Amino acid sequence: MTIKIIALSLATAFLAVGCVAFPEDGGYYDGGYDQRYDRRYEQDRRYDRQRWEYEQQQRKRIEQDRRKQELQRRDWEQDRKRQLEQDRRKNQMERQRHEQQRKNLMTQRQKQADTDRNKRRQELERKRATDQRTKKVQQNRSSNSRWNDNQRQQEQRSRDRRD
Q1: DSSP code, position 4
Q2: Model confidence at 130: pLDDT above 80
Q3: What's the whole-model pTM score?
Q4: Helix (H) or strand (E) holding 89
Q5: Cα separations (Å) of 79 from 65, 74, 87, 93, 94?
Q6: Spatial CA neighbour of 123 closest among 112, 115, 133
Q7: Which three-class secondary structure state does DSSP give residue 33?
Q8: Is the dihedral of CA 109, 110, 115, 116 positive or negative?
Q9: Is 32 helix (H, G, I), strand (E, B) or coil?
Q10: What contacts 141, CB < 8 A, 6 or more positions away?
Q11: Which of 1, 62, 117, 125 is surrounded by the fewest CB atoms within 10 Å?
Q12: For the chain, how long is the longest CA-to-CA vector?
């Protein structure tokens, strides 16, 4: 068993040293590793740079989108507040207009009722005045019998003449 362990450790050491000593693409010069001689290093570096630039562009794009959405949200909220304020003012003006119309209607009805009342009062006064005159005339006629007799005689004469 110890032999197997020793053989396995030697095989592992040989393979590990061989991989380090003889890389696939090079990069080792004069016994040491040098980046200038490794083509993959430059490719990896360019790829890393491209990936970094792409990620930066994505971050910028995401940040711009977030700012744009935030701005749109603020604008929407302001528009909503403005619209609510306009609706509130409109409703208030509408209520005031209805109230004013109601007041105007009430005053018109009151004026109409006053004029109707005045007309009725005037008509009653005229009727009373005419009734009083007719009563007075009747009283004068009845109290003044001479006048009544004379009046009857004149009426009789005028009838006789006509015949």
Answers
A1: H
A2: yes
A3: 0.39
A4: helix 39-143
A5: 21, 9, 12, 21, 22
A6: 115
A7: strand
A8: positive
A9: strand
A10: 147, 148, 151
A11: 1
A12: 184
- Rounded (10°) angle between helices 39-143 and 145-162: 90
- Report how far Cα 72 is from the mean position of its chain's Cα atoms: 18
Cβ-proximal residues to 62 (8 Å cutoff; 6+ apart), any chain = none
Encode burial over 109-147: b for 16+ CB neighbours within 10 A, e otherwise: eeeeeeeeeeeeeeeeeeeeeeeeeeeeeeeeeeeeeee
The DSSP bridge pattern shows strands 28-29 and 32-33 to be: antiparallel
Which residue's entry shows tokens 């970094």?
Answer: 52
Spatial neighbors of 26 by CB under 8 A, at least 6 apart, are 37, 38, 39
Nearest Cα to Cα of residue 7 among 20, 15, 21, 23: 15
What is the number of residues in the chain?
A: 163
Judge whether 34 and 28 are in contact, CB under 8 Å. yes
CA 25/CA 41 separation, integer angstroms? 10
Side-chain half-sphere of 163: how many Cα atoms within 13 Å? 5
pLDDT in tens, 34-88: 555 555 656 666 677 788 899 999 999 999 999 999 999 999 999 999 999 999 9
